[in-house]
Amino acid sequence: MSGPKTNERPGTRAVLRGYHMSASKARVVLDLVRGQDVTTAREILALTSREAADVVGKVLASAVANAVNNDGQSADELYVSAAFADEGTTMKRFSPRARGRAGKIRKRSCHITVIVSRLDDERLEVLRASRSAQATASRSRRVASSRRRADQQASLNKRVAEAGAEAEREAEREAASSAEVTEAETPEAVGVDETAEAAGVDETAEVVENEETEK
Fold first, then answer.
1. Residues 114 and 146 in one domain
2. Which of 75, 98, 133, 215 has its Cα between 20 and 30 A from that of 82?
3. 8-42 exposure pattern, b = at least 16 Cβ within 10 A, e = fewer
4. Are residue 23 and residue 111 in the same domain, yes or no?
């Protein structure tokens, strides 16, 4: 028994008609998101580099918006139940070739259709459990990363504090050494000054004696 016809498939749909792209190029992207839940489909389209990914993403967003606003469904409970691209009109052009011939150019277009439906209860329960596990794992990774950064910062602060204390101790040792050198040099300087004063007194006395002798 064949499946339901295209226009009889259940769900909420969005259609983009006459987009200037071949249907084969659009089908490559549609095959990636068919059967996926809406969140996963968005992630896949965001990481796909093809031009059709942007277009399919807009059609998917339109289908989800139709389901939420018109049918009162929750966006977290939807999945892509059908996604297909039909061939549209083809504009025929030509390019001149040698000897008066003409080369065919076919500018193709397509109609992109995305249908979203509500997940069944069993699959919805599995999806919720998976999302909960992912959220728990993500939180654990964030906590571990925060603790690791805190430990690294504490270790850095400790090294900085030790370096500062070592610099202070080095400065104190240099100050003490300078003070010892100053104390050692001071008595010698005092002795030199006293010797110079004594020599000056003796010279003065000798000059006075010589003057008296001459008189």
1. no
2. 133
3. eeebbbbebeebebbbeebbebbebbbebbbeebb
4. yes
Number of neighbours of residue 62 by Cβ within 10 angstroms: 17
Q: Kindly tell me the burial class for residue 106, based on how many C-beta atoms sit within 10 Å of its own C-beta (0-12, 13-18, 19 or more).
A: exposed
Residue 106: name the closest of 121, 87, 125, 122 by CA.
87
* CATH value at residue 68: 3.90.470.10
Does the pTM of the predicted model rise above 0.85?
no
* Whether 125 and 80 share a structural domain: no
Write out pLDDT tens, residues 149-160. 888 888 889 888
> Which range among 5-9, 88-92, 124-128 shows the weakest confidence by mean pLDDT?
5-9
Residue (of 18, 24, 30) closest to 110 by Cα position:
18
